[in-house]
Amino acid sequence: MPRGLPKAVKKCLEKSKDSALLAVETYNKPAVKFKSGGYIVLMTIAWTSLFHAIFFRNKIKPFYRVKDGIKFIKRNGDYSYWELKTCIKEYFKTDVNNPIRKNLEFFIPLRNIIEHKSLPEIDADIFSECQAMLLNYDKIIEKEFNSEMCLRECLSFALQLYPSNKNLVDAIISNPDAKTAVDFIKKYRSSITSDTFNSGEYAFKAFLIQVANHQTSNTLPIQFVAYDKLSENERNNVNRVAALVKDKFIQVPVANKDLLLPGKVIIKVQTELGDPKVLRNKKQKNLFNQSKHTTFWKENKIRPETGNSNPTLTKSEYCVYDKATNQYVYTEKWVQFLVEEMKKDKEYIKFKDKSA
Looking at CB atoms within 10 Å, which of 23, 231, 266, 289 has the fewest? Predict the structure, then answer.
């Protein structure tokens, strides 16, 4: 901790760094499923405390005032401190499109959404914003104080590389509770400028290419170079290599690429029908559900019963047995068949009559 700083500044900085380190530790724990949940909450505390330290150092009291603008508001005998949203406005002032600011403003509503839910399905998709939130934290600390205060000397490159290829659509399918968060993420990203969205300060994106062992033993195994600091020729080379890598992966054949698991079939049918609801046990339920799906495949004999000695006896235009996972997957044609059959359902007809 630098000498000569006021006590209030030091306390805020200590709290800020502790919260940031806890955030990273939480995210990197293998046993933690909802990594971004705890990380966002702790990094919000870290950023808020960092801004408080900056304001205190600049002789600004980060407290809310009463309407007269003179006295400070107190709650339970203590001053009412500025929240992160207010700190951002005071720090960045008129710089409304600053990528660091936009990154932080992304997490405030998202934190409020996820506080009472477990949504590990969104972790992979917001990884780049989470990473930028940490890198920006170090950048502001170095700018406002000094490089000795930065976290980068305490952290190493994470060994837990993110292997997931899930996207936001998959998140909703596997967890319908994720819809609110997913809708917000899409809306927010579409609301910011393309320059901001493509900035490394808004979202840190990188790709790694495995290379042969270095010729010298004292060469660092992994080095990061900021994209915006590359020359024009270097940027062109990076983009060319990235395009080649992307194209290479696109051409790799994927087993059962166009086939659907039962859960996804049910969601697609329910959605294409207009999300019809029925009242059961005094509760609104989806009209098309697991029970109806089971009834349909049994009645139409598109696959054998579970435990059949020959599970491959399916109507392949609708269903295929996947030996690797020991489960049945379904075609888009099966979805359309179900949609057409469901339109004849009496409960669905009642639903359509009411909504007409």
Answer: 231
